[in-house]
Amino acid sequence: MVVKAALVFVVVAVLLTYYCHEPVPQDIPQPTLFASFGIVMRTVRHMARIGEYLGIGTEPQNLRYILGALISAGVKLRTGISYREGLECTDTTFDGVRVRVYEPVSARQSSGRVPGLVFIHGGGWVMLSVDAFDELTAHVSKELGIVVVSVKYRLAPEHVFPAAFDDSVAATKFFLQNAEKYNVDSARIGISGDSAGGNLAAAVTLALAKEKGLPKLKTQALLYPALQAIDFQTPSYIDHGHLNTLTKDLMVAYWIWYLNNDQSFREVFKANNHTSDQLKKSQYAGYVDHKMVRPNLRPKIVKTVNKESIKFPEIPNIATILDPRFAPLMADDADLKGLPPTYVMTCEYDVLRDDGVMYATRLRNAGVRVEHDHNERSFHGFLPQFSDNELAGTAMEKYLTYLRKNL
Fold it and tell me: Is 262 a residue of the active site?
């Protein structure tokens, strides 16, 4: 009996050791925090998949539910922290889109109009919510004394592209057109977002730059944004796609849920077989030239082709990957000219690092004033940990400094 108990103990210990072993880059500060974040993300994904296999919701639905429950539990544990103090927070709608508005009491009482910021949350267009970013958006509003509008866009895959984009455009336009209601200067409104929210913020900026009779966005601040879906073999995807903070497999799944909700093509996308030889030699391949990340590489030789003439494999809605509303890095050079000053935050250990580097490079080449804030030894999704993670706290200060100077 003792031998059996000892054997069971050893087996359980070995399994726990195996499961809790998390790849951690050697130079990561606070490695336990990084490993914990990775283990949580891996566990949540496994639970979501098992739930779908057992007929309990779909994987994205389960991801939402499990992460939502974990975030709610975390908020309850921090009940002693009144991060909303000094703010009026209102859930309302802007042109039919649900939003949360953060108004500092000082802004309401100000004799002059204050700046504003539209913030679009991340989560792969599939999960998370304004609640998950409540502390971050409240912090930005309080620290800068500005009105922040956090957008509750419709989520994929129940609402595929362009639902999230349309909601983000509608809410932003409404705020620009009704700024005075919140004592906001319509000429001093910026837009920001992280990850998938950074994708939406960049897409909205591109779209509204062409709108006439509308106040112009003062700046865009993109936090480790997802910007392209034609190349999943960039150096950052290759080097960091195994990290559970955001794996290559999950990022590809996010793109597909947003595009057409057909996960049968996941391996096709991961191998870059969702495009064609023609596309890989076109100007669009040049928009993700690895030379922008690794200058020692030879530049790609590309030729300009008409978008409508490009042939794709038989994948539903696949041509959408060249639509700048879906993937802002696919915007032509002419459309980048005249965009507002831009802040791009990237993280070293992030599959999306190169998306941000490439966009910053292309914007700068188009004459846009760009501040590229690259955070070494940091990882995807770290900014909301600004209260607990030293690097995230420093990154938050740099983000706030940029907004303070450019709004």
Answer: no
